[in-house]
Design brief:
Length: 256
């Protein structure tokens, strides 16, 4: 069985269908790509997989568990995390504080206990702090670790978003355009970080509009269009597929 498996997912918002029977799967240790035109339903699919809403129909399984109706927290606890297209986090808190906040998901009671001075709580807090420092170091955020998010560049905020996901010690990360709006040098740095995480055993799914980047990083690639899975294959198979080309042009060719 695949690590992540989505079957016949359907959902309408205010009676407007957005997911029209999505089938999607990612194998353990893959670096998968998810592409499709604007409005195809890619972020909405991530929202359903991560539990931001419960779909009208269909199933989502992760690591052998039916997670279709689980809370977002329960999914994170299983090792499934996601990043957001618009970087989130607490703008006035520092990078370190932002990372520590997400350790709570992991260590919840331990961190709470630390407020009351218990020894296990202190240990949990120290472990989380060490992890936050290690993640900041890995993402080369050391020099800005005590800066508030508002003082960071757009690209650095994207790195914090990835760091936040790593604090949950994930088995799999769903990335929603982590390089969008980032300069080419930092884009390559983020790509290198993602490759490193994948080499360390973290399964990755990447939504990205930059096709050369998808070609460089992802295999296989799934194409979503109008809330349906159009195809799944290698990057070369996807870009040479006529249905995919037509979906991107936004109009079906008339066949005489
Ligand atoms: N909560 C919601 N309420 C109403 N409509 C929604 C909601 N969430 C998504 N939609 C609609 O679903 C469609 C798909 O949106 P989605 O954000 O998933 O597209 P996308 O493939 O991620 O596009 P992009 O590449 O531009 O990010 C859009 O028409 C959007 O307006
Ligand atoms: Mg999107």
């Amino acid at each position: 069985m695949s690590l992540l498996e989505v079957r016949d997912l359907r959902h309408a918002f205010y009676r407007v269908p957005v997911l029209n029977g999505v089938d999607f799967s990612v194998e353990a240790h893959e670096f998968a790509g998810l592409v499709g035109p604007n409005g195809a339903g890619k972020s909405t699919l991530y929202n359903a997989i991560s539990g931001l809403f419960i779909p009208d129909a269909g199933t989502v399984t992760f690591d052998g568990h039916d997670i279709t109706r689980m809370t977002p927290h329960e999914r994170v606890a299983l090792g499934l995390v996601r990043t957001f297209q618009m970087a989130r986090g607490f703008p006035k808190l520092t990078v370190f504080q932002n990372l520590m906040l997400y350790a709570q998901d992991n260590l919840g009671e331990g961190l709470l206990a630390s407020l009351f001075g218990s020894r296990t709580g202190k240990q949990a807090e120290e472990a989380a702090a060490a992890e936050a420092l290690a993640i900041a170091h890995r993402l080369r955020l050391d020099h800005v670790i005590d800066n508030p998010l508002t003082a960071l560049s757009g690209g650095q905020k994207k790195l914090v978003e990835i760091g936040r996901a790593l604090m949950a010690r994930p088995k799999m990360i769903l990335l929603d355009e982590p390089m969008a709006g980032v300069n080419p040098t930092l884009t390559q740095q983020i790509a290198d970080h993602l490759r490193g995480l994948n080499a360390d055993g973290i399964t990755i799914c990447l939504i990205e509009h930059d096709m050369p980047l998808i070609g460089q990083l992802c295999n296989p690639v799934t194409v979503l269009a109008e809330g349906r899975t159009l195809m799944k294959g290698t990057f070369d198979a996807v870009i040479s597929n006529l249905d995919v080309q037509e979906a991107y042009l936004g109009a079906r060719k008339e066949h005489a």
